[in-house]
Amino acid sequence: xxxxxxxxxxxxxxxxxxxxxYCVKALRFGSGLADLIxxxxxxxxxxxxxxxxxxxxxxx
Length: 60
Known about the structure:
The chain is mainly α and about 60 residues long. The protein has a domain at about 25-60. It has one helix and no strands.
């Protein structure tokens, strides 16, 4: 009986650890996605700034 309860306890711990690893992976993915979105926003704003500078130069 004691061996069964120890095995059950260990299986619950491993289940919890695997769930935590899924949560960590999801958080890392979300963080990476947020970084990509921010980088894309910065790149597109830089492109628009260059475009605006070119247009101002043409207008002058």
